[in-house]
Amino acid sequence: MDVIITKSQYQKIVFNLLDVLYGPKLSYERKKDMIYIYPNDSNPFENESIGEGDAIFRVYTGSGKGKGCKKDLYVNSETGEEIDNFIPKVATRKKLFSKTILSYVNEKTNLDIDCIDFWYYAGSTNDVDKENRYNFSVKKNKKIKITTN
Question: How far from the centroid of its chain's Cα atoms is residue 141's Cα?
Answer without folding.
Answer: 16
